[in-house]
Amino acid sequence: MASVGFLGLGIMGKAMALNLLNAGFDVTVWNRNPEKCTELVVKGAHQGISPKDVAANCDITFAMVSDPDAALALCQGPDGVAAGIGSGRGYVDMSTVDDGTSKTIAHLITQAGGRFLEAPVSGTKKPAEDGTLIILAAGDQSLYDDAKPAFDVMGKMSPYLGEVGQGANMKLVVNMMMGGMLSIFSEGLSLGQKAGLDGQQILEILDAGAMANPMFKGKGAMLLNEDYTTSFPLKHMQKDMRLAVALGDQLDQPLPTAAIANEAFKQAMKAGFADEDIAAVYKVVK
Ligand code: NA7
């Protein structure tokens, strides 16, 4: 099996790196806060000293960090991935960023002789743990072929979407729709209960009709129980909405519904729910 690096052991990265380890890959991990490496090291991973060190010593290095600034920070500077990647090795950034950031990272890596693939994912904590993510890959096709065995461990589907930027764009389209749906779902559930309807019955009726979907089912139970245990941090959804609205500006595409949903997530951030689950957007309309 190829030696793989994994940078960023947050909610998603930890679960994904653990699956690679359990599948028999030789895994080297690094996290900004090194304490998060301990659990994986105990289970057999090596610990890298910097992103540069990991990229220099692994055939393919994966990264899963919070946002565009974090993704760029991993690559730049004397300890960054670009300083270590060298010729022919691969770098796969699985963080959700905008297409511009992804292209900047692609440039940094390819200038240094490496191969680059962006591969943001659709799916949160549970699919990351279960290895059932949807991986949206775009960029160097030879690296896609080499990374496929690892993708098959981390996800249930990993379509190749073309040139760098298209994975990022697909992810923003998907999450923009998810944020919009969650926002109107919260308003509906709140309106119904204010009108005296039973919340559980609202969920059952939705689930029996054309609007049934796994997200309403999963998040619906959380809303009724006022359980906001973080599976998908709300601050990351607001980032995705912000990046999608910015893409709309760039492409002259009207996004009135997404823009308003973005405002609801901003309100939730301001109210102090940034680190809670996306379900906490309900609290601003409740
Ligand atoms: P988490 O659980 O918030 O984890 C974020 C990770 O990103 C964590 O490992 C952080 O390290 C790391 N991070 C954040 N900023 C930096 C900088 N500047 N440099 C290096 N590392 C950094 O997020 P999730 O796992 O839920 O989500 C990850 C991605 O998937 C995100 O793009 C989502 O939109 C989808 P720390 O532990 O704080 O040192």
Automatic annotation (TrEMBL):
It is an enzyme of class 1 (oxidoreductase). GO terms for biological process: organic acid catabolic process. Residues 165-284 form the 3-hydroxyisobutyrate dehydrogenase-like NAD-binding domain. Residues 4-161 form the 6-phosphogluconate dehydrogenase NADP-binding domain. Its EC number is 1.1.1.291. Gene3D superfamilies: N-(1-d-carboxylethyl)-l-norvaline Dehydrogenase, domain 2, NAD(P)-binding Rossmann-like Domain. The active site is at K171. SUPFAM superfamilies: 6-phosphogluconate dehydrogenase C-terminal domain-like (SSF48179), NAD(P)-binding Rossmann-fold domains (SSF51735). PROSITE patterns: 3_HYDROXYISOBUT_DH. The keyword Oxidoreductase applies. It comes from the Bacteria. Keywords: NAD, Oxidoreductase, Signal. Residues 1-17 form the signal peptide. One of its GO terms (molecular function) is NAD binding. Pfam families: NAD_binding_11, NAD_binding_2. This is 2-(Hydroxymethyl)glutarate dehydrogenase. It comes from Marinomonas spartinae. The lineage of its organism: Bacteria, Pseudomonadati, Pseudomonadota, Gammaproteobacteria, Oceanospirillales. The gene is Hgd.
